[in-house]
Amino acid sequence: MEPVRLKYQxxxxxxxxxxxxxxxxxxxxxxxxxRTAAALAAARTLARGLGARIxxxxxxxxxxxxxxxxxxxxxxxxxxxxxxxxxxxxxIYLCRDRNEAIRDAxxxxxxxxxxxxxxxxxxxxxxxxxxxxxxxxxxxxx
Amino acid sequence: MNPPVSSNAQSSGTTKVVVATTVALTxxxxxxxxxxxxxxxxxxxxxxxxxxxxxxxxxxxxxxLAVMLFSYxxxxxxxxxxxxxxxxxxxxVVRDSMGANMAKLSVSALVVxxxxxxxxxxxSAGQYLGRLxxxxxxxxxxxxxxxxxxxxVFFGVVVTxxxxxxxxxxVSESSTKALRIMQITTVMVVILLIWCPLTLMMRDTPAPLPxxxxxxNIHLTSESLxxxxxxFWAQISFVVLIVAFGHSILAMSGFETLAQVYRELAYPKLKxxxxxxxxxxxxxxISTGVISILAVMIIPDAVRSKYYDNLIGGLxxxxxxxxxxxxxxxxxxxxVGVLILSGAVNxxxxxxNGVMNRVxxxxxxxxxxxxxxxxxxxxxxxxxxxxxxxxATIIASRGDMLLLGEAYAFGVxxxxxxxxxxxLVLRYQRHDQEYKFPFNLNIGRMELPIGLGVTTAMLFxxxxxxxxxxxxxxxxxxxxxxxxxALFMISERVxxxxxxxxxxxxxKFNLDHQPQISxxxxxxxxxxxxxxxxxxxxxxxxxxxxxxxxxxxHDIVVMTxxxxxxxAGEYDLRDEQLFAHDEQExxxxxxxxxxxQGKSVELVVVPAVDPFDAMVQTAAKLQASKLVVGVxxxxxxxxxxxxxxxxxxxxxxxxxxxxxxxxxxxxxSVYVNLGPHPPxxxxxxxxxxxxxxxxxxxxxxxxxxxxxxxxxxVALQRLERDLESGNRGDILDSLQREIHKPPSEG
Lengths: 142, 746
What we know:
The structure holds 2 protein chains of 2 kinds. Chain A is of the alpha/beta class. Chain A has 4 helices and 6 strands. A 6-stranded mixed sheet of chain A has the order 1-4-3-2-5-6, with helices on both faces. Chain A starts with a strand and ends with a strand. Chain B has helices at residues 30-41, 48-56, 60-84, 90-98, 100-139, 148-169, 176-202, 222-225, 237-248, 256-262, 269-298, 301-304, 311-317, 323-361, 380-397, 401-429, 450-469, 471-498, 519-522, 540-548, 575-578, 581-597, 611-622, 637-649, 683-700, 708-724, 728-739, and strands spanning 17-21, 440-443, 446-449, 510-514, 529-532, 556-563, 602-608, 626-630, 659-663, 670-673. In chain B, α3 (60-84) runs parallel beside α10 (256-262). The radius of gyration of chain B is 34 Å and the shape is elongated. The model of chain B is unreliable at 1-15 (pLDDT under 50). Chain B is of the alpha/beta class. In chain B, 47% of the residues are buried. Helix content of chain B is 60%, strand content 7%.
């Protein structure tokens, strides 16, 4: 199942410090506002050293029987909500399955940061992290 | 700015490109689609048996089975409507066939259906859970008991409240959960289908089948006859059968979801829809129909009335086997029931929200209802209103499943009837049905849709019978429908003043502006097929390519050229200039064609001065294997091929070779290889070449070392020399004669 990708730039691309190739892209998966803020802060620290750009990936699940084009929360609302986030760009995926959407959107060698909840029971963020690690992505959980 | 590809192409080089993506091109498998529909439809197995038996007596399971068989006919109605409307639920079908007022009426019935889905499902789950708690308490010798009806109301209110809040927050579960729930449900159904026959075999006396559904075996109570009680109509056998059928009709509620998932079904779409619908109908026939029959056979008559509200629970209790194992299985049955039935509450709220938002888009509902929640962005006013109605219904029902079932049937049957009538009317208004309900009689030029007509008539008969036989359902359903209809009418009047123009329904595209084309950005692998489109009314070539392309091997990229005047390429275009209304309209049609075929395409807009340069540059950058264009109204296929070929020659070295297909709606396509390629020789030239080769082999003494290619090589070298040595005029004359040689000679 292919998700729908909506992409927008929050701030203009900064030149890479080395200026000899495309900037490294650090991906942060949106979980909830609090944990995403923590993940973004960790990503910003990492990005400074690497000269990387931060992309926030938001997989918004549209439940059946709603058509995928008409999510229960409008894309404009999600955009507004993330306007003040510390990411360089935001990618919003309208999808039926969150994990599949994120997995399909990430490149093989991506570096991903996920803000997870500390719970003794299984939470989707941790299962996503496991899934991505299994497929060869480098995943940091904060 | 795109780097210039050649000095000639500089002025016509692409400035930047727009990659358009939309939600339309997302496809799911047959199993996923079936799971989504079954989450709604299969949940009725938990309550239909009990409700139907209370209304019509012991023959009820046969009526439930008859309804499940009839669901194959309703499936065909949905298939025919889906073959015309990729995104057509009841509202769209009825609006397009019978107008806005009938559409409002039908959507009101659908809303009643959705509102009742929640309470009936959640109260049923509460009944199962409450009775299981009592059973566990009894098994463990506890004195605590709960009143199942009160518990069901409490449970219903809590669960509805929970899902209302999660819908307000916009937290949605992934669709894979639907598949998991159906997998667990299937395990339960399979265990029942094995355990029940074993139980019957182990009994000393064979259990009789339920009595056949003849008028004498159908015992309609005064409640189940409603206003027909004591009238002449109640004496007519046919009326009795229709009334009995009407009491069982809600067994097939949930078909509307089939229309919603059609849009996302993968290629071949219609075949997959048929497969999905068949899986759904067969699953329900077995799970709902057969299990209802087994329940009547296994649960003794004397105690069955105790289990009307939890028939499967009663079935498990009466199975053969150790009590502990039965209790464990009963717990499993209740867990599955709570999962699938509670899921139906969530689906009903989501569906209600979707339907109300859909009608609001048409201006039939006031914008006030669609105001987003300040914190969560959801349409909380619609959700609040619908959840309140559901909770009020749960409390008013006092946990009475029969009452809820009666009321539920109102919405189910009327929305089916309106839908079938809409599809029937469209038979005479449109002629683009890719699938037609079977059993059509052709008399001359006239087609009589016998099958569709009989199904529609049957649905209306049942709907009318329900109207008179179910007093409370009619009062509830009609009141709700009238209130909703009035709300829609008032909203429309208010909105009419505000609305200045009605926009054509166009796809919403998400634009990704890229400095240049690349296969990576477009998600197109090398070897893709590039289809150039310009006119939304002339997309037959896209249709042809979609039909014959295997997407596992080749991706399809659809491009359109945004024409620029000479010199404009030096300036950056604004986004709205790059992707204006024309492009949006064109791509909306492209998406609709692709959706109908169930195949995904990538979309790209390339601004350029010269469209031919833009096409070949795009094909080269994508490393496409083929460029496909439609035949032009302004030039012949040969001229079109020649201009594209010249554009290819202007590409910088190394030039990527690909073929060109020029399609014509009435004739076979013309294929041209661009760049160096082995020629396709005329048969007489092949013969001539062979004759020369034979002569040379015999005379020259070169023997077996001489090949046809050597003969051609020498001929070409001599032609090249002649061209350079002043015989150019003669050669061109010969070429002209060759080109214009009549077909009979060649």
